Amino acid sequence: MFDKLKQRWEEHKIRVQERRRAKWLKFKSMLPEKIQNIVDQIELQWTKYCNSAIGDIINTVVFVLVMVIIIRFFIGEIRWIPSGSMRPTLIEGDRIVVERFSRFFGYPKRGDIMVFYPPSTQLSAKPLDVFKRLTGIMCKDVAYIKRVIGMPGDKIEIKFEPDGSAYVYINDKKYEEDYIKSIYEYPQCPIEGMDPLYMMSDQVMKCGPFHLEYDEYFMMGDNRGNSQDSRYWGTLKRDRFIGRATFLFWPLNRMRVLKRFKQ
Questions:
Q1: Which residues are identified as catalytic?
Q2: Extended beta strands in the chain, E state
Q3: CB 145, CB 81: distance < 8 Å
Q4: For the segment 84-137, what is each residue's pLDDT rounded down to a tens digit?
Q5: For 215, how many CA atoms within 13 A lie in the half-sphere containing its CB?
Q6: Which of 29, 102, 153, 189 has its CA 20 to 30 A from that of 238?
Q7: Is the separation of the CB atoms in 213 and 82 below 8 Å?
Q8: In terms of C-beta density within 10 A (0-12 exposed, 13-18 middle, 19 or more buried), how is residue 243 classed?
Q9: Which of helix, strand or coil describes residue 65?
């Protein structure tokens, strides 16, 4: 049964190819003779190329690059953690899987660990630079990894307790977090009355309140005492997201799924 179906499929493909060839020959016969000769030469050179070793190598390389682009853009990619800004959840040298397909069907959720291009990273639209981002080959665009804390429409503020601990307040409600490194390691908020120009620097931490627009997110590292995040450079637009960290696979003794929070 299977052999018959396979045979019929092969016969169908041959008939389709023959019909296409006949249409092509009919079209070519309508061209001026000089054009026909040029087309014949192109066809001859193309046939030689397809049957050559160089042609096989180039076709293989192109196929691999296309597959890499498809996988990285639509499915996911592998990243490594270069800094301690996400301690203790992720530490330096961790290898993670970043999935990208969910961004086509929904939005980041509060608590998601996301990889993204910060506002300071200028994304060039030049073809070569776009190619580098798509394949990851020689790409030098700086990307961060942080956790989504504030969602569009939220009011975010950092407040200190008398004992020196600090908490994030979302819409005036304390946000309890059991994954951060320490509630006692927050840098101090700027003193009221500081020079506005000084406060605009992305090297100065702000405590808010931050009012997020419909397409803005507030990102923070789990290591609140050592993380350059939205407290310094402001909110993040959705189109800067690369993907969501889903799985820590190296080193083996730290292997685990990076679960999403229940909303």
A1: 85, 146
A2: 76-80, 95-99, 113-116, 144-150, 155-160, 166-170, 173-175, 210-211, 216-220, 236-237, 241-250, 256-257
A3: yes
A4: 999 999 999 999 999 998 888 888 999 999 999 999 899 888 888 888 888 787
A5: 5
A6: 189
A7: no
A8: buried
A9: helix
Answer yes or no: do 109 and 229 share one domain.
yes
Residue type for position 6? K
The CB density around residue 246, as the number of other CB atoms within 10 Å, is 17
The boundaries of the domain holding residue 44 are 2-72
Residues 94 and 31 in one domain: no
Distance of alpha carbon 171 from its chain centroid, rounded? Answer: 29
| Structural domain count, the chain | 2
Does some domain include residue 262?
no
Structure tokens at 151: 């969602």
Tokens of 157: 């503020």
Helices (H), 136-179: none
Please tell me the distance from the alpha carbon of residue 162 to that of residue 147, in angstroms, as a whole number: 26
Question: Which residue is it, tokens 């096989």?
Answer: 56
CB 232 within 8 A of CB 256: no
**pLDDT digits 0-9 by tens, 174-191:** 999 999 999 999 998 887
Q: Which of 258, 240, 261, 259 is nearest to 81 (CA)?
A: 258
Q: Walk across the sheet containing 166-170 and list its strands.
A: 173-175, 166-170, 155-160, 210-211
For tokens 């049957």, the residue is 51
Overall pTM surpassing 0.90 (yes/no): no
